[in-house]
Amino acid sequence: MLITDRSASDVEALRARLHGEVFGPDDAGYDDHRKPWNRAVDQRPAAVAFPRTDADVIALVEFATERGFELAPQATGHGAGAAGSLERTILVATKHMRGVRIDPTTRIARVRAGNVWSDVTVPAALYGLAPLAGSAPDVGIVGYTLGGGLGWLARAHGWACNSVTAIEIVTAEGRLVRTDTRTEPELFWALRGGGSSYGIVTAIEFELYPVTELHAGALLFPGARAQEVFTAWRDWTRTVPDAVTSLCRLVSPPGGDPIVLVEVAMLGDDTPLAPLRALQPVADLVAPMTPDRLTEIHNDPKEPSAGVSGHRLLNDVPDGALAQLIDHAGGALVSVELRHLGGMLSRGSVCNGALNDVKAEFALFAVGLVPDAQAAMTVDTALARLTDALEPWDAGRALVNFTEKAVRFHDGFTQHRLRALKAQLDGAGMFAGRPTGSSSRA
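Above: the chain sequence. Below: its structure as tokens.
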């Protein structure tokens, strides 16, 4: 990025307004602070600001208004996607805005913008409660939740965004608004699954769910049995109650032998797992578990890494679809998985947000590691071949947290409603979230 006197003076002016730190392109530490968790994304904003208070966020909005900047909020960067020029964009890194309050009586948690899931899952488990957390303990709660949120208790309790009870957000006017079903309900509706481009969320409140008995973990099989295991798992998903959420994936570690994993969480006893245990896995790691350990099942990377992913929602996966999936897995793709949807995920409600229901039966997600440009091209090609092969079973939309691409997330009516609200609240386009209604893993 070309450093100009103007950009340097903008950084200094912003620094004078905030309690938190600000880093410009000519500051030591800028290169470290601008990087998201996904190292495949090379984001180079005009500045990186670390607000610590709501007043800092309001000051950022006022500054952006006065000087013509866009603002792009980011907590951990797990869901960072490909970005265009960020020459006039300030990255708002909310990681220092932390604070958790849990009320075990009302079963409500309040978190600030920078909290990650382990900040809630561990203390909530002490009360026998669980949030609708995702597959990694260090994913930012706000981005995951407002993007939809597909977790281990999803078939029993639905999308995480629809368990949100209140949201605190700074709008383009510099107002700090607490929105819920009674206060600015249209904004509350849009924020729950409708994109991140309406303002900067500073805190959210959401429901916690009692967990009295939980069995969870994984069954491991040799990769050579992929067709057999995927077929048996698919057939099994047609029989299980909503208390069971699961996925099946083929993992091809670099330099290692492929393995198939069936990962599962069951509210109650483990009786439903009997048909899959009859397949005699080489390892059975499903056992009684406290809810705070659910984020360990998927064994997501603990450190930042570079990866590119692909995604489709699928109406069904008949034998032909499974054959295509297995044929295109492996190689440059380290993991190819199918997540079972249905249950409460497919049951709409007038109380829900913009992500109301999803009628697809399965979600495809695949990822490859991209340490360099050549690897990135190879992975892109492999992902395109996989997703193209499964196009005949495509459900016609996608999940916000599962893709960085500009695709269809909502039906036409919902898209129109979201765009109208965006024009009303941020007509100048200050907030550089994904375009509403068009385009961190769930």
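The chain has twelve helices and 19 strands.
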